[in-house]
Amino acid sequence: MPETTTVKVSTKDYNNKVKPTWCPGCGDFGILSALKKSLSDMNIAPHQVMIVGGIGCGSKLPDYIQANGYMTIHGRPLPIATGIKLANPELHVIVTDGDGDGYGIGGNHFLHTCRRNPDITHIVENNQIYALTKGQYSPTSDPGFVTTTSPEGSIERAINPIALALSAGATFIARSYAGDPKHMAAIISEAIFHPGYALVDILQPCVTFNKVNTYDWYAERSYKVEDEDSNYDPTDKDAAWKKALQWGERIPLGIIYRNTTIPTYGSQVPGLKNGPVATLPVAKLPANVFDKIKQTYV
Amino acid sequence: MTGYEFYQRVQQLANLSSAEEARSLTDVTLRSMKSVLRRQALEGLRAQLPNELAMQLEGSSGEGDELIDKEVFIGRLMNNLETEGHWDKSLGGLDLVSVSTGDEAARQTQSVLAAIRESVDERTSAAIEASLPAEISDWYRAPSPTR
């Protein structure tokens, strides 16, 4: 894991002056608080973090936190985040996007990132709707969900991101709920600490466009796996499959699956055996390569 | 005071059109309070509210959650309020009124908090105030709202 700092970090160090444009009551506020708490608890300083967003309400999170941030185009934060991590492994790289960005248009990148296992954390603010574009059904909307693009109810089955991640080889899979920031902060810390790709699917009520999957809806149905079974072992893949397939009336929260035995993508890339790009002395570059970079950027 | 009388008081403070609306508002606010109240406040409030209201506080650990801010607190109420206006005739999609609905959520939440403050003893009131998120605590201390 990249280093932390020796200076004590507080959540205030992550505050900036930008006022979020999220709707009042949006679940993203809880996610932002939890992320700040997690980073400060782990004593990670703002300059040691890179937050990569896509497009969507939740993807605006990099604007609202005092840390390095990068906003990509719709569905593309995962490959960008992978590249950032390969170039500078000392950064804690965290992707924040939504279900539309991450599981819809970004679905292909999601599958391959799971199996590549780069050392990044992926927080999906899953509100089961496309909210920024004013209320269309998304890949995680349940069948029958009425929206502007499904006026007679969605006829599509929802994807199951937990099961999808498990089958694609993700090495850390967890779920939390935006109404419980304390739980979210603990899960996010575990995800950041995990050596490899860590998916945190966060059930996040959209107060404006989703009047079905509300705070109460999630609270009534979700339960913490460790509360129900103190012996639940997230390294047991068979047990993880059972939890992954649960949805609807019973929604498990917590660390569903964890495997620390798979090497990270960055530790295996042959081109990086002399060290990451960020630490390569410029003088060691071949002259023609250095000249080309100069011509492109200077 | 009975549960119905409490709802009527909330209806009056929030200037709502029915006690049923007041019941929905009160129940939702109590469920939000359940997540933040620490043990002393929780037990005091449970003991002094009418039973059907106290039920909304069941299942809480009494540990509170200092990460819950004003936005998460009003989220449940926002789920129940009108957030969409009419069809947007310029760009398509729906006109949003969620920004101004946030102000309405604040006003309605203050009404419930005022009714609670009137119903509990000073010790419980102080414990409630200390448990609430910062801005919600300001609402709790504020005079009863008027339209």
Blueprint of the fold:
The complex is a heterodimer of chains A (298) and B (147).
Chain A: H1 28-41, E1 49-53, E2 68-71, H2 77-87, E3 92-98, H3 99-105, H4 107-116, E4 121-126, H5 161-168, E5 172-177, H6 181-193, E6 198-203, H7 215-221, E7 222-224, H8 225-228, H9 237-244, E8 251-258, H10 287-297
Chain B: H1 3-14, H2 19-36, H3 39-48, H4 51-54, H5 70-80, E1 84-87, E2 94-96, H6 98-119, H7 122-131, H8 134-141
Antiparallel strand pairs in B: 1-2
Provide the gyration radius of chain A in Å.
19 Å
The number of distinct β-strands of chain B equals 2
**What's the mean pLDDT score of chain A?**
94
Q: Give the SSE string of chain B.
A: HHHHHEEHHH
Major protein interface: A-B, 31 and 28 residues
In angstroms, what is the radius of gyration of chain B?
A: 16 Å
Backbone structural class of chain B: mainly alpha
**Major beta sheet, strand line-up of chain A:** 2-1-3-4-6-5-8-7
- Terminus-to-terminus distance of chain A: 33 Å
Low-confidence parts of chain A lasting 5 or more residues at pLDDT below 50? none
Strand content of chain B: under 5%
User: Beta fraction of the residues of chain A?
Assistant: 15-25%
Main sheet overview of chain B: 2 strands, antiparallel
Instruction: Assign a percent range to the helix content of chain B.
Output: 55-70%
Placed side by side, the strands forming the largest sheet of chain B appear as: 1-2
Oligomer: heterodimer
Termini separation of chain B: 25 Å
Sum up the overall morphology of chain B in one term.
globular
Unreliable stretches of chain B:
none
Arithmetic mean of pLDDT of chain B: 89
How would you sum up this structure, described in words?
- The complex is a heterodimer of chains A (298) and B (147).
- Chain A is α/β, with parallel strands linked by helices.
- Chain A contains 10 helices and 8 strands.
- Chain A has an 8-stranded mixed beta sheet with strand order 2-1-3-4-6-5-8-7, with helices on both faces.
- In chain A, strand 5, helix 6 and strand 6 (198-203) form a beta-alpha-beta unit.
- In chain A, helix 1 (28-41) crosses helix 6 and helix 3 (99-105) crosses helix 4.
- The longest helix of chain A is centred in the N-terminal third of the chain and has 14 residues, at 28-41.
- Chain A is globular.
- The model of chain A has no long low-confidence stretch (mean pLDDT 94).
- Chain B is mostly helical.
- Chain B has 8 helices and 2 strands, in the order αααααββααα.
- Chain B has a two-stranded antiparallel sheet.
- The A-B interface holds A 22-27, 29-30, 33-34, 37, 133-135, 148, 178-182, 184-185, 205, 207-209, 211, 214-216, 219 and B 28, 31, 35, 65-69, 71-72, 74-80, 83-84, 88, 93-94, 96, 98-99, 101-102, 105.
